[in-house]
Amino acid sequence: MKLRFIAATAVASSIVLAACTTTQKVAVEQPSDFNLSCQQIEGEFVKLDGVMEDASSDKGVNTANVAAVVFFWPAAVGNYMNAGEAEKLVEKRRTHLMGLYEKKGCASSN
Asked: Where are the domains of the chain?
């Protein structure tokens, strides 16, 4: 009986923990930004695209969000809001980097 309880508790705990997604947050400005080359800035844009894809998938229907709705619906709301915040930060960083990209004349050198 004790073993069943422990197993059930372990399964329930893993489901609850899986219900929370962690969308990566980016800093809008980083100290090394002004030292980036045009190619490095382009690489940053690629990374931001990946973060944006992750945030979009965290807002949609996925295992974590379904589990959150079933077991603890506020977690689903939190996941959605967390992903939305990450998307806003990505857009702000993209704008910041685009300013640097243009200031360095990268757009005209391509």
From this structure: 2-109
